[in-house]
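[Q] Does anyone have a clean structure-token version of this?
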Amino acid sequence: MIEHSPVNIPVLLGTPRKGRQSDHVARWVLKKAEERKDIEPQLFDVRDFDLPADHYGMEIKDRFPEWRDAIIDADGLIVVTPEYNHGYPGTIKAVLDLLLKEYIHKAVGLVGVSAGPWGGTRVIESLVPAVRELGLAVTFTDLNFPKVGDKFDDEGNLLDDSFEKRADSFFDELVWMARTLRWGRENLDSEHH
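[A] Here you go.
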């Protein structure tokens, strides 16, 4: 029997760029997650990581204990990433690369943001191989925000109600995968390791 207690799912906002439109998206996603009884979210912002310019390796994760501990306790992850020149910002990859085994057998939902009409479809496609290599299991229900500059007012209020239903599908799938994988980690992982 799969336990139906809330899943712990951090939200990672993936760009430090000034004037970023993805900030509105990440805060809206966080608010929608907080409204649900089946998700316990927490927001992380790549701006808050003092990333080294010259040193990477597994020992570096101890320089970011809040992130490390959140991912250890997490059942999944939501990544909110803008699309820059058909790809993702380097900072999001740098933050994700701080950890490795902590991600294994956990669900990840991807939220793409773009100024153009495709809503970050290409950035999600380019991010899938990277998160898969980390051991994360990607949901098939993405959330895309095309022409993001038209979607929110200056205070970050969403102007397009059609995203409510899309968000429900996104969260429903993420919660299902997160619970299923949590059950697997708790009941099966010892058999495979």
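[Q] Thanks! Anything notable?
[A] Residues 7-192 form a domain with the Rossmann fold fold (CATH 3.40.50.360).
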